[in-house]
Amino acid sequence: MDSAALEQRVQTICLLVLATVATAFALYWLRPVMLPFVMALFVAFGLQPLVALQVRRLRLPRGLAIAATGVLGLILLWLIGGLLTTSIGQLAANSQSYQAQIGSLIARLGDALQEVGLDLPDEIAGAGISGRMVRDTLLSTTNAILELLSQSLLVTIFVIFLLIGGSAEPGPAVWRAIEVQVQRYLLTKAVLSSVTGVLVGLTLTVLGVDLALVFGLFAFLLNFIPSIGSVIATLLPLPVVLFSPEVSATTAVLAIAIPGGLQFLIGSVLEPKIMGDSLDLHPIAILIALIFWGMLWGVIGMLLAAPITAVMKILFERLEMTQPLARLLSGRLAAPDAPPPQESA
User: Fold this and answer.
1) Which of 40, 102, 196, 263 has the most crowded Cβ, counting Cβ within 10 A?
2) Cβ-count burial of 29 within 10 angstroms (0-12 exposed, 13-18 middle, 19+ buried)?
3) Cβ(4)–Cβ(125) under 8 Å?
4) Nearest Cα to 73, choosing from 44, 52, 35, 53?
C-alpha cells in the first residue's frame, strides 16, 4: 500500500470515529424524542404481522385492524398499570413490617461486628435508617412507574401513526430484510419471555413472595436484554425476600434458585435451539452494544441494543465501504475468499 492510500485510509477512519462520537452525542441529547420513537418503530415491526393477520384471515379493513390493535395495546397498558399500582399499594401497606425487618437485620449485623471488636457507623446504626430506606424505595419506584407509563403512552401514539403510515405492499429489499429479521427475533423473544415471566410469577406466588406478579413482569421485560437480563431478573426479588419476616430461609433459597434455574433452562438451552443465530451477531458485539446503548439510553437502550445492532449490520452489508464492519459484528474477521481467476482460452 502506497503512502497516499494509507493516508486516505487513516483519514477515513478518523472521520468515522468523529462521526460516531457526534452521532452518539446527538442520540443522547435527543433521547426524549428518539427513545420513544425507536421503541415505537420496533413495536410497529412486531405488530405488523398481527395487523396483516386480521386483514388476511378476518377480512377486516386495514384501518379497522390497526384500530383493534391499538385498543388491544391500550388495554394491555391499562392492565400493566393496574398491576404496578396494586403492587405499590401492597408495598406501602407492608412498609412497617419491612422497616422492622430491616431494623432487625441491622441490629444483628451490629451484634456480629461487636463480637469482633467493630462498630457500625452511626448513620447506619441509627433507628431512622430503615424508615429512610423504605421511603426512598417507595418514592423511587413510584417515580419510575410514572415515567414508564408516560413513555408507554407516547410509544403507543407513535406506533399507531407508524402503522397508519405503513404500506401493505413490500418495500425495498433492504427494508424487507430488516423487517423480516427483526420480526422473527421479536416474535421468538416475546414468546419465550412470556413463558419465562409466567413461570417466574407463578413460582413466586406459590412460595408466597410479595410482588410476585411484578417480578414475573420484570422477568418478561428483562429477558429481552441478552446475557445480563436474566441475572438481574433472578436477583430482583432478593431484597423483598430478605426484608419479609414471613419468608423462611428455605423459601428464600427456593425463591432465588427456582427462577434462576428457569432462566438458565429457557435462556441457555431452549432459546438457542429455537432461535439459532437469527441475528447473526457475535456475543462480544452484543455485549459491546449493551454497554454502548445502555450508556446512551439506560435500561431501554439495553432492551433495544440487540435489534438495533442487527439493523446496523444489515445496513453495513449493503455498502462496500462498511462491509468489514458487518463482518466484524458477525465475528467473521477474515475477508471472504476472492473468486478464482478465469483461465484464458
Assistant:
1) 196
2) exposed
3) no
4) 44
Question: DSSP letter at 225?
Answer: S
What is the rounded average pLDDT for all residues in the chain?
76
Residue 165's domain comprises 22-169
pTM over 0.90: no
Instruction: Note whether 209 and 267 are same-domain residues.
Output: yes
One-letter amino acid at 2 equals D
The residue ranking higher by pLDDT, 232 or 137, is 232
Structural domains of the chain, count? 3
Please check the confidence at residue 150 and state whether its pLDDT lies above 70: no
How is residue 318 annotated by DSSP? H
Residue 199 has a pLDDT of 92
- Helix ranges (H only) for the chain are 3-29, 31-57, 62-93, 95-115, 122-125, 128-165, 173-206, 212-222, 228-235, 238-243, 249-264, 271-275, 283-318, 323-330
Angstrom distances, CA of residue 84 to CA of 79, 87, 130, 171, 307: 9, 5, 23, 39, 27
Last residue of a domain, one of 169, 199, 215: 169
Extract the C-alpha cell encoding 327: 463482518
Residue pair 84/138 in contact by the 8 Å Cβ criterion: no
Which of these, 226, 216, 225, lies nearest to 258 by C-alpha position?
A: 216
Considering the domain boundaries, does residue 71 fall inside one?
yes
Of the two residues 276 and 118, the one the predictor is more confident about is 118
Say how many C-beta atoms besides its own lie within 10 A of residue 255's C-beta: 26
Residues 6 or more apart whose CB falls under 8 angstroms from that of 178 comprise 311, 314, 315
Q: Which tens digit of pLDDT belongs to each residue from 179-218?
A: 888 888 888 888 888 899 899 989 988 988 877 888 888 8
If asked whether residues 268 and 283 sit together in one domain, one would say no
Domain limit, last residue, from 253, 275, 297? 275
The arithmetic mean of pLDDT across residues 161-166, rounded, is 80
